Amino acid sequence: MKQFLSFVRKEFYHVFRDKKTLLMLFGLPIVLIVLFGFAVTNEIKNAKIVICDYAKDEATQQIINKLEAGNQFKITKTIMSHTEIENAFKKENIKLAIIFPANFNKDLLHLNKAQVQIIADASDPNTANTLRKTLRLRDVSNQYLLKSQVSKIASRFCEVLRRNMKCIMGSRSQMMQ
Questions:
Q1: Do 41 and 33 form a contact (C-beta atoms < 8 A)?
Q2: Which residue, 140, 53, 48, 143, is CA-closest to 96?
Q3: 41: burial class by Cβ within 10 Å (0-12, 13-18, 19+)?
Q4: How far is it, in rounded angstroms, from Cα 164 to Cα 160?
Q5: At the topology level of CATH, where does 47-150 sit?
Q6: CA atoms in the 13 A half-sphere facing the CB of 96
Q7: Helix, strand, coil: what percent of the chain each, to 5?
Q8: pLDDT class for 176, splitting at 50, 70, 90?
Q9: Residues 154-163: b if buried by 16+ CB within 10 A, e if exposed
Q10: Which of 50, 80, 107, 119 has the fewest CB atoms inside 10 Å of its own CB, making it the most exposed?
C-alpha cells in the first residue's frame, strides 16, 4: 500500500510540473464544454412545415395562426393533396407536414377530440422526434375547444340575461302603471 501511495504522489508531481499535461487535463474539457454548449442544441427554430387543410374551418385556422405566431415553425405553404406533400418533402427541404381532415371542427366540438395526421421527415430521426414533441397540437386544440365552449356558455348566459332583463323591465313597467 505504501508503494502505491508513493507512486500516486510521484505521478501528481509529474503532472503538476508539466504545463502541457495540465493544459490537456483541465483546458481541453473546458473548451469542449463551451464548444458543445453553443454548437449542440435540440431547440427547434424556423422549421419549414406545410399544411394540408381539408377542413378549412375556424378551428384549423386558429391552430394554423397559433403555429405561425411562434418562431418554432415556418409555414412555407398550404398544400391541397397528399401527392403535393410527397413532392414538397423531396424538393423543398421541409421537416414536417400537418394534415387536417374534413369535419375537424365538428369532431372537435362534438367528440371533444379530432384526428390530425403529422408526417415528419425521418432522414433525421432526432429532429423529427423533437418536432413532433414541440408541435403539441393536443394543447392547441384543447385551448381552442375551451375557448369555443366558453364563448358558447357566455353567449347562452347573455341570451338568458337579456330575456330576464326584458322580463324585469316588463314587470317594472307594469308595476309603475
A1: no
A2: 48
A3: exposed
A4: 6
A5: abc type-2 transporter like fold (3.40.1710)
A6: 26
A7: 65, 15, 20
A8: very low
A9: eeeeeeeeee
A10: 80
Residue 18 has pLDDT above 80, yes or no: yes
Phi-psi region of 71 (alpha: psi -120 to 50; beta: other; left: phi over 0): alpha
Rounded to whole angstroms, the Cα distance separating 11 from 14 reads: 5
DSSP letter assigned to residue 70: S
Place of cell 504545463: 19
| Amino acid type, 11 | E
Within the chain, strands assigned E span 47-53, 73-79, 96-100, 117-120
Q: What is the pLDDT of residues 2-14, one digit of tens each?
A: 899 999 898 888 8
pTM of the model: 0.60
Contact by Cβ (8 Å): 95, 125: no
Query: Which pLDDT score, from 0 to 100, does residue 77 have?
Result: 78
Beta-sheet strands, E only, within 57-139? 73-79, 96-100, 117-120
**Region of residue 46 (phi > 0: left; psi between -120 and 50: alpha; otherwise: beta):** left
